[in-house]
Design brief:
mainly beta; ten-stranded antiparallel beta sheet
């Protein structure tokens, strides 16, 4: 089973998360990994992680954080924020980051692949 991010609210960078998905670690019902919209594993800190545990990762040109989420509800969702890697090196502050919320949908892995193929 996969849980695919389908929509977001907040800054426009949230669009980068649409199509990314959470998947249970093989043989586990409580640990997850996070994947980009092409099905490539994204290294997260921590890795693997448990439902609701704050995760940090890099995607595109941003450092991301996902927190306050629940993957076990009828409508999975949570909060995200990011920082631009290039601007942070120059300004060393949070003014260039964005934040928002996301909603996801549970489904079979084949469904997630089909959605990413259409994107």
């Amino acid at each position: 089973m996969v849980i695919t991010i389908e929509s977001y609210k907040g800054g426009p960078d949230g669009a980068d998360l649409v199509g990314c998905f959470f998947r249970n670690v093989t043989g586990s019902t409580i640990e997850y990994n996070f994947y980009d919209r092409n099905g490539k594993l994204i290294h997260t800190d921590p890795s693997p992680f448990r439902n609701g545990e704050k995760i940090k990762f890099s995607l595109d040109d941003h450092d991301w954080e996902i927190k306050d989420y629940d993957l076990t509800t009828t409508v999975p969702g949570g909060k995200w924020k990011n920082k631009d890697k290039i601007k942070d090196k120059i300004k060393d502050d949070d003014s260039d980051g964005e934040s928002g919320t996301f909603q996801a949908q549970s489904g079979l892995e084949e469904e997630a692949r089909g959605k990413t193929a259409q994107a």
